[in-house]
């Protein structure tokens, strides 16, 4: 038996009132299934606010990350420059500065330091034990033959009995000589003979004219640092480095305009940006590099970081 089910209105409603209050798609009071326009607008507004907040947090985090990376990049760059400057300047002796300007410094740095075992002047008036008529110098110059670059040699230095170094500009071809028995001369002078054969050399007789009783000799190279416009990033300042007679190579990019070299002369505690007269340059006791650098921070600005390096010269009082 099939029963028909009749839907009655709620208690208290007259017959027929259900047509206005219920049914699919009805817009009446109780039992409706959709949202009103006001509710939809509120939901959209809340969603927009939430998305805006999330986006703002994301942008802030991204800027913070970019700023952190920029600061780290600047600090690493300045630290690298400072360490390189410190390691290369530390070997410089007194009277080792050829040019002392705020944006350029040229140094004489030793490649190796050796012992003069015996020498004779070209005139034949020997100051050593030999009696060579054309002059000769027997030396022991310790070095790694595989790493030794003859093209880097730009001169030599000799030290007098008072400890002062004097420098002479000559290429390797003008310094090295031939003939003689430098190992035997050095062993006779007291050397233990444990060095390699390549480390015992005969130097040209012209070197003997500048020895004047010196027992030490060094091979030197010319080292130049220059602050100039970057070739990699035009419009920015960069630090260039050149060794010997080689071309300048961009060593560090993004240096701030305040980056500079400074010099301390004699017993003074003041730092100078420039030292011109040669007598004063010979009395430079220390060099300071104000290695300031900058980098974009990702938010339209830039990050700057400074690192001051002070390097006293070897044998400086």
Attribute tags:
317 residues, alpha+beta, 2 domains, nine-stranded antiparallel beta sheet, three-stranded antiparallel beta sheet
Description:
The structure is a single chain. With 317 residues, this protein is of the alpha+beta class. It folds into 2 domains: 68-106 and 224-312, no CATH class; 113-221, no CATH class. The protein is 24% helix and 30% strand. It has 6 helices and 14 strands. It has helices spanning 18-21, 37-89, 172-175, 182-188, 205-208, 278-281, and strands at residues 97-101, 104-120, 136-140, 155-159, 165-168, 200-203, 216-229, 237-243, 249-255, 260-265, 284-290, 293-296, 302-305, 308-312. Strands 1, 2, 3, 4, 5, 6, 7, 8 and 9 form a 9-stranded antiparallel sheet that branches. A 3-stranded antiparallel sheet has the order 10-11-14, with helices on one face. A hairpin with a 5-residue loop joins β12 and β13. Residues 124-133 have low confidence and may be disordered.
What shape does the CA trace take?
Answer: elongated
Order of helices and strands: HHEEEEEHHEHEEEEHEEEE
The share of residues in helices is 10-25%
Beta-strand residue fraction: 25-35%
Total domain units: 2
Strand count: 14
Oligomer: single chain
The whole-angstrom Rg is 40 Å
User: What is the structural class?
Assistant: alpha+beta
End-to-end Cα distance? 122 Å
The tally of helices reads 6
Runs in which pLDDT lies below 50 for 5 or more consecutive residues are: 124-133
Mean pLDDT: 79
Largest sheet: 9 strands, antiparallel
